[in-house]
Design brief:
Helix content is 18%, strand content 35%. It has 371 residues and is α+β, with helices and mostly antiparallel strands. The strands form 4 sheets. It has a 6-stranded mixed β-sheet, sandwiched between helices.
């Protein structure tokens, strides 16, 4: 896809003015970095960073049957999500392989707000639409109406609070959300999840306001070390935190059970049947492979697609890899046979015919201490 065919968020001009390197991502032109990716990752771990997530899908599923419909479609138990809470879930096909992973916001008894990945938004829309089957459900694409920004890092609350006049952010718990006035805009959805392993917030508000809010956040968060952060650092941070990226750790050929995402899957009888349930239940009984972390002291960084060997046997391939600024070592993720998935197991990574030793380790590589 050429630059001319890529979509742009309402902050494209701000990114270019800040010197960002723009790259194609999920059909969008997005900032991969403003400066050093490693320095940007360190800033999020130590201070706070501001992310433009305007490329993500924002959907609204509403109607009398909205909850029961989603419970028939996604892996998590939507009916058990408390009001103003958020859950992680996956939209799977009948074979149990994900079409996307989602965040599900319980806005009300008949309304769920859904965040999807940029490259999969249209797939999610069409898949859900094709399976409504006469239920009282309306699926609305809010992606073009709403901006989506994220602040991530230990000082995120301090950076954001000066612009929030009617809500104490300390009252918004992890995987919770509230509506507040932010930068003079009423009814901004403020959530506390994050994709970096750090504390942080997401903001959803009218898209036309994005440039002004972006600038005001950078000013308000200056003392907290707030700076714009690109997708390169975001990818490194989420890998350190052991969080999957669609197209890497999960896709149409890698199921969520073997990816270690059982926390987002409910097999409870009261949830009822759902797409992919039987297939995933069988896999859960007898998985053949497991997603693991790998570390290597070698010079080569693990990259997606590099083949992995145990002796003469090819046993898997790298899903994601990066230089870890937090651990100071090269890291990656990979699927290996269950028999080789124990931490401390030595395997080898093949790079154009040359082998480099890797050590299997548990995920995540990094986990913050929560208050």
């Amino acid at each position: 896809m050429t630059e001319a065919n890529l979509r742009q968020t309402n902050l494209h001009a701000a990114h270019v003015a800040a010197g960002a390197k723009m790259v194609p991502f999920g059909g969008w032109s997005m900032p991969v970095q403003y400066a050093s990716i490693l320095e940007e990752a360190k800033r999020v771990r130590e201070h706070t960073g501001l992310f433009d997530l305007g490329h993500m899908g924002r959907l609204e599923v509403s109607g009398k049957d909205a909850v029961t419909f989603l419970d028939s479609m996604v892996t998590s138990f939507v009916g058990k999500i408390p009001q103003s809470s958020i859950r992680y879930g996956l939209l799977c096909n009948a074979e149990g392989n994900p079409l996307d992973d989602l965040l599900l916001y319980k806005t009300g008894p008949e309304e769920i707000f859904v965040v999807a990945n940029a490259s999969n938004k249209d797939t999610v829309l069409s898949w859900l639409g094709d399976h409504v089957n006469g239920a009282d459900v309306t699926i609305t694409d809010r992606s073009d109406e709403l901006a989506m920004l994220a602040l991530q890092g230990p000082k995120s609350e301090a950076a954001l609070q000066p612009l929030v006049k009617d809500k104490d952010l300390s009252e918004v718990g992890y995987y919770k959300f509230a509506f507040a006035t932010v930068a003079g805009i009423e009814n901004v959805r403020v959530s506390r999840t994050g994709y970096t392993g750090e504390d942080g917030f997401e903001l959803y508000f009218p898209d036309a306001e994005a440039p002004r809010v972006w600038d005001e956040l950078l000013v308000a968060g200056k003392d907290a070390g707030l700076a714009p952060i690109g997708l390169g650092a975001r990818d490194t941070l989420r890998l350190e935190a052991g969080m999957p990226l669609y197209g890497h750790e999960i896709d149409a050929e890698h199921n969520p059970v073997e990816a270690g995402l059982n926390f987002g899957i409910s097999f409870k009888e009261e949830k009822g049947d759902w797409m992919g349930r039987d297939a995933l239940a069988k896999i859960k009984e007898s998985p053949t492979r497991q997603l693991v972390g790998i570390k290597t002291d070698g010079k080569r960084v693990p990259r997606q697609g590099y083949k992995l060997f145990h002796g003469a046997d090819e046993v898997g391939a790298v899903c994601s890899g990066a230089v870890s600024p937090t651990l100071g070592v090269n890291i990656g993720s990979a699927y290996v046979p269950v028999a080789l998935a124990e931490a401390g197991q030595i395997i080898e990574m093949d790079i154009r015919g040359k082998r480099q030793e890797c050590t299997i380790c548990d995920l995540p590589f990094y986990s913050r201490t929560r208050k």
